[in-house]
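Example (one chain per record):
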Amino acid sequence: MEGAFVPSGIRGLDEVIPGLPEGGLILLAGNPGTGKTMFSASFIHYGIVERGEKGVYASLAEGKREFYASMKALGYDFEKLEREGMFRFLNLITLIGEGVSTLINEVLAEAEDLGAKRLVIDPFSAIAQGLGDPREVRVFLHTFLSKIVKRLGCTTILVEEIPLGRRAIGYGFEEFVADAVIILRNTRYEDKLLRELRIMKLRGAEVRNPDVCFTLHGGFKAFPPFGKARLEAARRYEPVPDPPNAYSTGVRDLDEALGGYPKGSVVMLDLDMKISAEQYRLIVTPTIANFIVKKRPVIVVPTAGAAWMDVANYLKGYGLSEEELTDRLRIPALRDAALEAPTPSYVIPYEPKSLKESYEDFLKLEEELLRRHGQPILKFVGLDWLVHFWGEEGAIHLLNLDARRTRYLGGLTILLGKPIYPEILKRMPPLASVHLKLTRRHGCFLLYGVKPRTPLYAVEADYSKGYPLPKLTPIV
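Predicted structure:
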């Protein structure tokens, strides 16, 4: 049917596109190792398991045994689907000597006999090379389109290998014949592997986000632009146990990646200009909530653009009570801003003073919390706030004093660095035991560790527990 689409079966991709053209010809291209086989297998498997659409995978790249073994590691039991009469694997390697016409006739016969609604030819490049003459390739594509795609209504993926060092697809006309063209590529972000998918063409649909990041971790998964979800009802945050000799980040995925935040350490969160407040709070707030729920005190010095109300409201979204905030949280706020309206007792009004006086006031606040709770303190500080009042050198001096005190008391200091004052961001990493960078690519929220070194992680917001948590997926 003209204009109809079927789900691609690729996790995350159908949030960006309406699906793939039903009964259409889809060209899937990329360099070696970009995930073309995994994409294609996911397309076939989803059609069978979720929609009852029979599928055929015709391969010139690998044998049946190897294909079944590699797919079973992803949870795709194609051998079982074959026994149930829903799937066929065609090992075209054995037919190479018979010529291209034999290959095509075999594919046509098997697809029609099974009643397949999804078909993959992997790679089409080998068939094109067998035909040799570009004119014959073009004729074949039109014939293939009419015989299989139109007559059988079989949505078909043609896998096209792009040799390393080349960017052009095949003979250059395949994309004009195809109903959809999807390019997979491996790139680098600094020294990290980044995988990107580009939707070059999708007949019958407007694609507003043609580029998305993806991973091959646990199967092919695309990451649509970071979106904001709504909580139906906030539930109380469930504390996460501390790793050995460390404090939990409040997020199990992040603890697994980093081993937690070492006790007595400074953590540097380095943000680029694309990161929103909602995104960095997704990383920071679970750590604060974990401290408060465990009856540990917290001091928050908000970053530029954030008020004490923002901090309190976000923590209440984790089910924390006003009583808990009053007992364990302290938020210094400028006196003129703090006194515009009645404020809770955990908001501490202050006026800018000399560097020495301000640090002494901060120490009094910290000592009061230590006497009250007898527990190590988490201090969260926006670097821009320090630089604004005391300049870069004053901020460095304060942070060196605080780093020694944090180490001595066994607490934790988290510094949030926005690119407002870029020079201080270059000077802070040696002070930190943990240095994380937060960035964004094609709308995908990315996080990685400089210290300790980690791969890139795609970060998604998970609201399944009734409060926001980051879900980290490595890009591999």
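Caption: The domain at 5-223 is CATH 3.40.50.300 (Rossmann fold).
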